[in-house]
Amino acid sequence: MTLIKVNQNDVDQTIFNFIKKNYKSTNLSIIYKWFRKGKIKINDIRVKDLKIKIKLNDEVKVFDSSQTEKRDQFIEVDFSNLSIIYEDENILIVDKEPNLEVHSPVNINLDQIVKSYLKNKKEYNPEEENSFVISHVHRIDKLTKGLVIYAKNKITLDILLKELNNKSKITKLYLAKTENSNLQTGKISGYIKYDNDNQKAKFRVEKFNNAKKVEQINRLIDETKNIYEIQIITGRKHQIRAVCNFYKAPICKDFRYGGERSSLREIDLIAYKLIFNDFEGYLSYLNGNEYKSNYNF
């Protein structure tokens, strides 16, 4: 039998999601079987309704004799090079270096670095958390550098994930240095499809098979260096890179999308500014705040 006590970062979720997060390596069919066989209890009452919401200080018992592995193992890594742009009790905004993945099941990644930093500060203890894991709110490409937001608690994570696609709440601005000034300025609308086999996205103005709608606003801010400020309205994978490629204005060093090959493991694309607007309640103190990357051209 395993006893799990519900803490503040666990509340307001279903018992099914709570168990699923605690037993990530367990096949879902086994978890469903636990519920059917009455092997899940909340405060010593058997639970078969998967939609019951758990509350603070609830005691959840899992009667599983197979000793299923609970949660993923946390691996501490060096965080001495972590560049912090802003931090408070709810969020952390960091400047990701190029050639570093935000998340990876194999390589050292930004998620591990941030978790190690917060564990060292005693603001995160994976051994005391049940279902919550310090998490990035959004990602940027491995070869892109710049700002990434992390949520330090479940309340903040839920709010930010809910508002992530509401671009009036969080404005994301990028700087792109292109090989020429052919990139169309103003609002760009079209469709994009990412090919997992080729690891490349295709952008077209007209709709095509299974493509998703994308929009962004391009503004040329330095004509001599061909530097554009790009506001993301939709955030599809490789969106900016594919749009630049379509207009035959590839991002410098971005060989995959038509740029000159470089020995450097980076492209000239920076997630350089975040602006918070119109949040209500818990995160309203962030309204009007702007955060800029230390990277520039």
UniProtKB/TrEMBL annotation:
CDD domains: PseudoU_synth_RluA_like (cd02869)
SUPFAM superfamilies (UniProt xref): Pseudouridine synthase
PROSITE patterns: S4
InterPro entries (alphabetical): PsdUridine_synth_cat_dom_sf, PsdUridine_synth_RsuA/RluA, RluA_PseudoU_synthase
GO MF, one example: RNA binding
Catalytic activity: a uridine in RNA = a pseudouridine in RNA
Signal peptide positions on this chain: none
Superkingdom assignment: Bacteria
Any Pfam family hit: PseudoU_synth_2
Keywords recorded for this protein, A-Z: Isomerase, RNA-binding
Homology family: Belongs to the pseudouridine synthase RluA family.
Name of the protein this chain belongs to: RNA pseudouridylate synthase
Species assigned in the record: Spiroplasma diminutum CUAS-1
